[in-house]
Amino acid sequence: MTISDEMIAVARLDPINCAQTVINDALEEAERAVEYDEELFEVVQEASVFVNSIAELAGVKNLSVLPTGTDRTNTQSCQAFIGYLKASRVVFAALLNQARMSAHKKRFDLGLGSTFSYEFSQGDLDRVQTLLNELRNLIGAVDGLNEEHRQRVLASLEKLQRELHKKVSDFDRLYGLAAQLSSLMHKAGTDSKPIIDRVREMLGIAWETQARGDELPSGTEPPLLPKPGVPGKLPSA
Known about the structure:
It contains eight helices and two strands; from the N terminus they run ααααβααβαα. By secondary structure, it is mainly alpha-helical. The chain has one domain (5-213). It has a two-stranded antiparallel ribbon. The longest helix is centred in the middle third of the chain and has 37 residues, at 75-111.
């Protein structure tokens, strides 16, 4: 599986969505596996440790105890990590449901003028929508991608497009999509660079809008974008 630097970076902004994305991807690989081998062990172990770290970051207290098995050839060790991921999926699904309810309230409060909002310029909003259209086309053209995974990412992308307006209460949905795309980038292989370029630009626009709304000092650097001259990868922390 290999958790990408992009996923680690996005997890700092949207840990719950990142955790659920990693859990779903790892469990999909487990379902497709013919046997419990060393490759599957690496996938579920890495995913479990990452999810556990995210839980600590986000203050999630009710996860199961992280398994400690290290024998890559032991079926029970592999099953223990799979069990941990399945139990964690239930916990994070509940947290995401709470987040969705909160998002509905924020949207209504925003529409009624009773809450703070960030505001895209019309040019930035149009550009983000263009980038989302380009991402949809790129994702549709990625070879070898599990079709269920492709459709899940496309559905999230289209939902964001429908709900993105000049005024937003937060950037949670955008960062959540970035988490899903970070997972997809790893699977896209050589097709990932055009996706990475557009995700970077989209996150850069979101950061500028957020920084302006939060009245941050001019020139404050975004937490996700790389320093100039560092190609192909986002900073992990």
